[in-house]
């Protein structure tokens, strides 16, 4: 079996930026972009990461508002372009940005495998990686860029109605006919919750934004959007107690509980969208890299992407519970590729 110079696990901005740099350094990188499975769809870990589950990206430098149709038509391979959603004409969207990054990595010779890495052995060299399809790969250096996924509350009723009205991705599921012109519920008070509520307000009759405190965590510009949107009804100091529904219709409502008293309140709703933060995708590492208390990969050298194992580097949300932005992830991917390149040069 040929030993790879560098394997990159993950296909968000960190993974593709790492691939672009590694490919241009003649490292012939191999990217595992993730498997297309029902389990990954439900947990939000399909290829192209979280940006592929979002709408307009307004804060990625270099993409001001504007119509990118012609650029997308010329930059992306026709076979991929024809299955992408039509361009909105309002600047880059998450899926467009990810396809552009993937294409750029491919243009420089990156090899891409549509599979998950489910097991790693970092105890001996070369490192061994096992995929969901059962294949084994060997690598001198590895860049982990597997990102993070959306959290659920863990209520039994929430679990019972997953895919039947309960979702953690408004952008993936919000346009379904079952949610049209119906009241919907979004849980959370951060940027994601506000973004999801704003998106859903295009389809829903009312969006109840349920937040456990009396002040949004979201950035001012996003919070103002929610506060001024007539279709968004903020339920302050409230938590989701139960999702109501039945076999035939799926979700029909929610029971909210006050966080300041003992009141319970029932609301009619056809959907419940969770937007309460994220969990890093580090389980497959099975304790072989040091993690922090929130299970994010610990970077062991200041201002570098080194992990607790020499030759293994980490970039993006999987190692960042603080910034968690597309642009910081892309920057970290570049750093990881440069760190891997220098490490390989020093050890070969
Ligand atoms: P977040 O900022 O961590 O917010 C999570 C929200 O969920 C908080 O309001 C939190 O309440 C609430 N929450 C957490 N656990 C809960 C529980 N068990 N029950 C009820 N509520 C709970 O996460 P995020 O909104 O996903 O954002 C993550 C990062 O991505 C942020 O840096 C954000 O700025 C960024 N982001 C940016 C954009 C954009 O710029 N377009 C869009 C989305 C996300 P508390 O406030 O009480 O803690």
Number of helices: 10
Annotated CATH architecture of the largest domain: 3-Layer(bba) Sandwich
Radius of gyration: 21 Å
CATH superfamily of the largest domain: FAD/NAD(P)-binding domain
Order of helices and strands: EHEHHHHEEEEEHEHEHEHEEEEEEEH
What's the average pLDDT?
95
- Net shape: globular
CATH topology of the largest domain: FAD/NAD(P)-binding domain
Q: Find the structural class using helix and strand composition.
A: alpha/beta
Main sheet summary? 7 strands, mixed
* Number of E-type strands: 17
| Integer count of domains | 2
Descriptive overview:
- This protein is of the alpha/beta class and 348 residues long.
- It folds into 2 domains: 3-150 and 278-347, FAD/NAD(P)-binding domain, CATH 3.50.50; 156-274, FAD/NAD(P)-binding domain, CATH 3.50.50.60.
- Helices cover 26% and strands 24% of the residues.
- It contains 10 helices and 17 strands.
- The strands form 4 sheets. Strands 1, 2, 3, 4, 5, 6 and 17 form a 7-stranded mixed sheet that branches. The protein has a 5-stranded parallel sheet with strand order 8-15-9-10-11, covered by helices on one side. The protein has a 3-stranded antiparallel sheet with strand order 12-13-14.
- Helix 1 packs parallel to helix 5 (94-107) and helix 8 runs parallel beside helix 9 (220-227).
- The two termini are 18 Å apart.
- The relative contact order is 0.18.
- NADP nicotinamide-adenine-dinucleotide phosphate binds at residues 59, 153, 187-193, 195, 212-213, 217, 219, 239, 275-278, 324.
């Amino acid at each position: 079996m040929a030993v790879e110079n560098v394997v990159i696990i993950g296909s968000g901005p960190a993974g593709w930026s790492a691939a672009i740099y590694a490919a241009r350094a003649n490292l012939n990188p191999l990217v595992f972009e993730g498997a297309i499975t029902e389990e990954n769809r439900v947990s939000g870990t399909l290829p192209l990461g979280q940006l592929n589950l979002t709408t307009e990206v307004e804060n990625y430098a270099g993409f001001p508002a504007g119509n990118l149709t012609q650029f997308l038509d010329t930059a992306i391979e026709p076979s991929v372009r024809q299955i992408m959603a039509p361009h909105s004409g309002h600047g880059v969207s998450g899926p467009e940005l990810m396809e552009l990054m993937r294409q750029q990595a491919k243009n420089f010779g990156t090899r891409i495998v549509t599979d998950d890495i489910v097991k790693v052995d970092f105890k001996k060299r070369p490192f061994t990686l096992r995929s969901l399809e059962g294949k084994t790969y060997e690598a001198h250096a590895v860049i982990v860029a597997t990102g993070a996924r959306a959290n659920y509350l863990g209520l039994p009723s929430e679990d019972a109605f997953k895919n039947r009205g309960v979702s953690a991705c408004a952008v993936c599921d919000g346009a379904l006919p079952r949610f049209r012109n119906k009241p919907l519920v979004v849980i959370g008070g951060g940027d994601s919750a506000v973004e999801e509520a704003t998106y859903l307000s295009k389809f829903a009759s009312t969006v109840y934004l349920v937040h456990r405190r009396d002040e949004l965590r979201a950035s001012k510009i996003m919070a103002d959007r929610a506060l001024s949107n007539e279709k968004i009804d903020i339920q302050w100091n409230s938590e989701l107690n139960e999702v109501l529904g039945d076999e035939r219709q799926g979700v029909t409502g929610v029971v909210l509980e006050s966080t300041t008293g003992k009141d319970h309140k029932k609301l009619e709703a056809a959907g419940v969208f969770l937007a309460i933060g994220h969990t890093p995708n580090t389980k497959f590492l099975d304790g072989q890299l040091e993690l922090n208390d929130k299970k994010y990969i610990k970077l062991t050298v200041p201002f570098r992407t080194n992990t607790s194992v020499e030759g293994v580097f980490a970039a993006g949300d999987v190692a960042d519970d603080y910034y968690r932005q597309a642009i910081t992830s892309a920057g970290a991917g570049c750093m990881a590729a440069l760190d891997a390149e220098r490490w390989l040069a020093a050890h070969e």
